[in-house]
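Review form for a predicted model. The reviewer records the input and the model, then writes brief findings.
Reviewer: anonymous (R2)
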Amino acid sequence: MKKFFLFAIIILSIPLLTACGGEEGSADASEKETIRFGATTGPYSDMVTKAIIPLLEEKGYGVTNKEFTDYVQPNKALANGDLDANLFQHKIYLESFAKENNLDLSDVITVPTAPMGVYSNTYEDMESIENGSTMGVPNDPTNLARALTVLEDEGLIEVDDSVDPLRASLKDIEKNKKEIEFVEVEAGQLPRLVESEDLAMVPGNYALAAGMDLLDSLALEDMPDDYRNRVAVNTDDLETPFVKDIKEVIESDEFEKIMDEEFKGFGKPQWMKE
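Model under review:
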């Protein structure tokens, strides 16, 4: 009989120990000491290492940064817990990717972003572009929508007002005032087309990766905030102290100073202009 009671006490104690262990884990999670960032190779990985990490370290965190070479793995790594935050994408891509892959991710704050630009070794300004010129443009719908917006803002084309930014195509051009011949390629190949075509629309991250100066462009994108990159986290973490600290350091004067010194030509989000 004594053995039975001893066995019963042990069995009943197991859930209590498990519960205590769970509570201790939650406390550790709320007092995170190390933040695992992820960013795509290039300017946004540089932004993490040069601006975000030093400022978070001043708050007492240890911070790591994992670099990625694609736009799929950073969100998957975030969702499965391998990362605590990432920086590489704009709002439209984040929401679309999360919906298609059934992930619960949220953005924290928008950061200065390298704008798409019109680059040319043939022309010195937009006014000198001649009829029938060739222009490289990105072949993915999201970046193409951005390119078409820039060209419309510059008065070169007119685009259907109902264009879907996730499904834009050259067919959405209603007027091509300079009869430009568009050459569609993957966005990462566009810097090379500056040499082979009259003009090329190059996203800022690829321009910087190719050693191009954003300020050498004939025109830079007046980027809507929806197209600016942002820090993303798992939605469950939005109200945690470490996420609030990430937002605080990005909103700081020190962060903006680093942006002005190290990331010239990057377009600032609306909150930073106010």
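Findings: The CA atoms of residues 116 and 203 lie 4 Å apart.
Further findings: The first strand starts at residue 34 and ends at 40.
Recommendation: see findings above.
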